[in-house]
Design brief:
The structure is a homodimer of 153-residue chains. With 153 residues, the first copy, chain A, is mainly alpha-helical. The first copy, chain A, has one domain (21-152): Arc Repressor Mutant, subunit A (Orthogonal Bundle), CATH 1.10.10. Chain A has eight helices and three strands. Chain A has a three-stranded antiparallel beta sheet with strand order 1-3-2. In chain A, helix 3 (27-45) packs across helix 7 and helix 4 packs across helix 7. The radius of gyration of chain A is 23 Å and the shape is globular. Chains A and B meet through helix 3, helix 4, helix 7 and helix 8 of A and helix 3, helix 4, helix 7 and helix 8 of B. The structure holds a DNA duplex (30 and 30 nucleotides).
DNA sequence: CTGATATCATTTGCATACGAATGAATTTGA
DNA sequence: TCAAATTCATTCGTATGCAAATGATATCAG
């Protein structure tokens, strides 16, 4: 086999694998699509709340009253984003805010009775959403996937 | 052991595993965080383009001129979103649009020479971003992860 | 004690993301 | 053929998501 033959194979035969860039194989692109699919499944089961809003309620239900800033850290939202989420939950009467007695910079956030009722009602639906999101995988695959995904997050 | 004891174990001892809802273990929440991390890595390497903008350029580079609608399908964006992305790329001179000769509903989109130059320059950086995103995993884990992620997307 | 830093919240601006409504153009089907 | 259905693009409204700037408060260091 001549050197020209090797070169030809390099630039033509292997081109599809080695040199071409396939968007649909990139982890970022697939991650974005998987996230989109999950949001869509979420909306199909919980129409009146977004995943970030649900996350805020679920975390407040878990840990109780906390500052807006701390809540943002716990649910992976920056300060500007969490403010919008809390504003909308407050407008719907699901959370209430108050000033921190000692540290006047802090805004405390807590569930209202309506918010507590809502999150207790929605958690079973959230479990279903998790199941449906992972439905294309076997139980073993799902466990592996969650373990690896957590390493990336 | 009394029935009361079993009830107690059910509601207290096993509560942490069976009945509590842990947001940080839910696939949707971790998926959102992994996606956030990827976007952050992307921005660190490609500051002047967003992942959706890059996706549009990469796909046009791959397949050549196509309709705005078809492009949206290929890069998983609805019509409203893709319009905004194309508008911004057009404003920066990276793509150009024209009317379809036969089907007057369609808006054809194509790379400009500047757009082609940009995507050729950026693809190596995108490969680096993919590597960094997957860096917490071994090569074998990364292959497994991509296979399972693709099933969910 | 006080000036420099750091933290918390807010605001603004820009960029996805999607549902719903609308209008123009095309295709289908009776 | 022609009315109904479909497709393509646009627009509007709402909701993240983040960078950067700002103001108020708290903490730290000399």
């Amino acid at each position: 086999m001549s050197g020209e033959d090797n070169l030809l194979r390099l630039v033509e035969a292997e081109d599809g694998d080695e040199n071409n860039y396939h968007l649909q194989d990139q982890v970022g692109f697939i991650l974005r699509k998987a996230h989109q699919r999950h949001v869509s499944l979420f909306a199909a089961h919980i129409a009146d709340l977004t995943p970030p809003q649900f996350a805020a309620l679920a975390k407040l239900y878990d840990i109780g009253e906390t500052s807006q800033n701390q809540l943002g850290t716990l649910i992976a939202m920056d300060a500007a984003t969490v403010k919008g989420v809390i504003d909308r939950l407050k407008a719907r009467g699901l959370v209430e805010v108050s000033k921190h007695e000692v540290d006047k910079r802090r805004l405390l956030v807590n569930l209202t009775p309506e918010g507590r009722e809502a999150i207790e009602r929605l958690i079973p639906l959230a479990r279903t959403i998790t199941e449906e999101t992972l439905a294309p995988l076997t139980a073993k695959e799902a466990a592996t996937f969650l373990r690896l995904l957590a390493k990336l997050a």
